[in-house]
């Protein structure tokens, strides 16, 4: 059971995956079930974008500045503290910085003056994710989540969102995600949605013989280059700490929730922990000077 699932997700790195990660995944999933075995999951109508929109609105209403769409080009580090953020719109001199980008992106922002810490972050390797989203005229199956264990299949999971969330939330359409974890050089990362549909179609129809391409009303593709850290044996020694060697720099990313899996609830818990640490540091003048 486990071998094809692990190989489907981690590929060539499957043999190195820590049993602690698998244990935590089983515990988390078991904890979401009732005594009768029914799974209890939550879904925010309208998607998580509503949360971020509400946060931005609240911050602006309370006098805080929120700058969207500004790319941070690099971090300047002087005497092991961040002295400036160089962005597309100019230079920002910060009191404290919380890095929430994926670890490779954070490492790329650090200068040679923080080379030792940059190398520490670069030890963490990632798999990318390709997610093909189909809008269908009718349901694909009766199941919400289907794991695909055939090693020849180009995707590892079929998630029919509207078998869990109400189809009416999606204008009566049926939404299906086809998810694949891939290496950074995998050609699927550069394929268009139409190309992926053509590539995936033989495998979809093998699983669901009654499915025909004319059931597809729309398709789109999302890619994430750093979707899943490779949680190898000993990964706990590589996990970035919230408090970093750079005095006024803190890190809060999904690579830190190990041994647990990447879930919104786990991300929120980490964010709360980070917020408490940052708030304490902000009250300490030595951390800000």
Automatic annotation (TrEMBL):
GO terms for molecular function: oxidoreductase activity. It holds the Pfam family Amino_oxidase. Signal peptide: none annotated. Residues 8-255 form the Amine oxidase domain. InterPro entries: Amino_oxidase, FAD/NAD-bd_sf, Zeta_carotene_desat/Oxidored. NCBIfam families: PRK07233.1. This is Amine oxidase. It comes from candidate division KSB3 bacterium.
């Amino acid at each position: 059971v486990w071998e094809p699932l692990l190989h489907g997700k981690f590929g060539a790195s499957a043999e190195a995956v820590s049993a602690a990660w698998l244990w935590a995944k089983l515990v988390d999933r078991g904890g979401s079930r009732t005594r009768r075995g029914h799974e209890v999951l939550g879904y925010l109508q309208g998607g998580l974008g509503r949360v971020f929109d509400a946060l931005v609105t609240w911050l602006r209403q309370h006098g805080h500045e929120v700058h969207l769409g500004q790319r941070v080009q690099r971090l300047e580090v002087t005497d092991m503290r961040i002295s400036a953020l160089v962005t597309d719109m100019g230079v920002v001199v910060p009191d404290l910085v919380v890095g929430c980008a994926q670890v490779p992106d954070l490492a790329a922002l650090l200068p040679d003056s923080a080379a030792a810490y940059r190398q520490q972050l670069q030890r963490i390797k990632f798999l990318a994710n390709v997610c093909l989203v189909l809008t269908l005229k009718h349901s694909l199956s009766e199941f919400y989540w289907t794991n695909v264990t055939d090693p020849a299949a180009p995707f590892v999971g079929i998630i029919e969102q509207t078998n869990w969330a109400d189809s009416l939330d999606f204008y009566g359409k049926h939404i299906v995600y086809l998810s694949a974890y891939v290496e950074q050089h995998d050609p699927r990362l550069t394929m268009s949605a139409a190309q992926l549909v053509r590539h995936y179609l033989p495998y979809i129809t093998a699983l669901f013989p009654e499915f025909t391409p004319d059931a597809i009303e729309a398709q789109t593709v999302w890619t994430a280059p750093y979707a899943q850290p490779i949680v190898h044996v000993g990964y706990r020694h590589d996990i970035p700490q919230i408090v970093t060697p750079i005095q006024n720099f803190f890190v809060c990313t999904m690579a830190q929730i190990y041994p647990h899996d990447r879930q919104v609830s786990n991300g929120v818990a980490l964010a709360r922990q980070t917020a408490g640490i940052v708030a304490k540091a902000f009250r300490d003048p030595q951390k800000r000077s």
